[in-house]
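Quick note —
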Amino acid sequence: MDVSNRLRKELGPVHVFSIAAGAMISSGLFVLPAIAYQQVGSAIILSYTLAGIFVLPALLSKLELATALPKAGGTTFFSSLILGPGAGTVDGIANWLSISFKSAFAMIGIGSFAALLYPEITPTEIRLVAAAACLVFTAVNLLGSSHSGGLQVGMVLVLLVIIILFVMTGYRVVSVDAYRFSQPVEWNAVLGTAGMVFVSYGGLTKVASVAEEVRNPGKNLVIGMVAAYLVVQILYVLVVTVLVGVFPGDGLSSSRAPLSDAVLRMGSAAESGYLRVLFGLVTGAGLLAFITTGNAGILSASRNPLSMSREGLLPGVFGKLSARRRVPWVAVLVTSAFMLFAVFALDIEKMAKVASSFMLFLFIMVNLSVIIVRKSGLRNYQPTFRSPFFPYTQIVGILVYSYLVVRMGRVSLFIAVGVVIASIAWYLLYARNGSSRRSALVHMVERNAPPELQEGQYGLEDELLDILIERDEIIEDRFDHIIRDSLVLDYDHTVTRDQMFHDVAEGIAKRLHLNPIDLERKLGAREEESSTLIYPGVAVPHAIPHIIVEGTRVFDIVLVRNRFGIQWTDPSDVVYTAFCLVGSKDERTFHLRSLMAIAHVLQDPAFHRAWHHARSETELRTAVLLAKRKRLGTMDNR
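Predicted structure written out below.
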């Protein structure tokens, strides 16, 4: 595999938590409660609770895909690999626009919150502040994900402390009467408001775009994203509960900065000093919330052009990484330039609704992708987290998100459809010839075809294998490279040991240009001299025939499987698995190391399950490659 184009794995679970949480805590907490209260009054507590429930199908599906396919681009990569490059093109552009517009909105939010500290600030100055923030975050992201992620950790921790302090202060003075419904709950309005609030949770899944840069993604993505969801969901509900209880009547609906205004209503004159400090902290937290969203937005949005360029869906220049820091600098600069354009030229609030439509569309595609890839039967699709209640979770998610898309309004829907059409046109005119991947959807349709029809080409299983090796940070050694190119004999009937030796000799002779008769004779003589049967802790024996041949730097391995059994010398000994080794004298050290590697492979229970269920030669090789064993080291990588 080419490792020169890999991103550095510099993000841990705390970084994942901070990126996900920081992308959620912004307008949904510091602006939207006032707007939501206008729609449903104190029932906004129900709306926020429902919004958190609605995001669960997308979260669970995204976690499954991200732990199986931790590559830059997130949804873009998932769609391209599973649904095909056409869907990847649409998803990539939609995802990039969604994150970029929301991040641009966050930049404007930075300027707007600055107005609380400096009331004389003008609209133009607000946009200048937003542009300056965008440039600062661009510089931070160009320094690498560790710098951007580290900054995110600090900002989010401070933000969470301030929000918790707000809740602890506010719960003492809430009015219980504020929670009584004056009239029956209008569930249509509650659901509609939940749809509006739902967009605040979209940032939770954006961290999948930087999954390639996460250390041990199979574990850290799950910990970070689930923790972010639980913490932010609890805080969302607690904060709106305090807001409803603190504001009398319809005071909340007219507030421009609900949390800051709520602080002024919380205490008596004796507490005014403390409340002034808390007011400053909460106002600063609102500003910080938009900062974290903007920073996380540049980090995650820029990975979409990178992923699309790797797939041949965008020109290769978008995939360029800086030599020292391994940062997609072209993608970062282009993303930042687009955000600056949006800050100065577009109606950001209106575009945020369009971006929300894109987000819901992407969530539909994510849930559909999980259904397709599970049904495709790909052996190398091995997520460390599997979405529960499959496929009902995904079906419910698709229905809910489709409903919310419709509720976004005709204008937003019209613009979103226009972008989809433009994306399809780009794919047909440019990208269609740049990507030759066979998607999981095609694989699902064709999986009943004979395996030999797909042999001899680099297929989807091979690509998934490479992703697994990268995910688990396996440094392939010489043994792995030999296995990747090894001869495989997979019998569909019972054979004798001598028949197997004959077939092995014929196959090796063609590969190494040796005498097949001599090879067959040596295999038989070696077995007569000393049996190569081994019992690696199980009742069924395995065989590792191995011989020395003439020449120098000659070494090869043949993998043999026979579900019906190979009759060995003793009728009671039936072999189902064999590794046949052929090497020259100068390869004796590597010969012994290979025997040790095979012994380790045979002791891994996961290997036996994968080996038994493998449906092709590629899957048999993969079973060996992914088995747990100690690598032989760089000294053997000749």
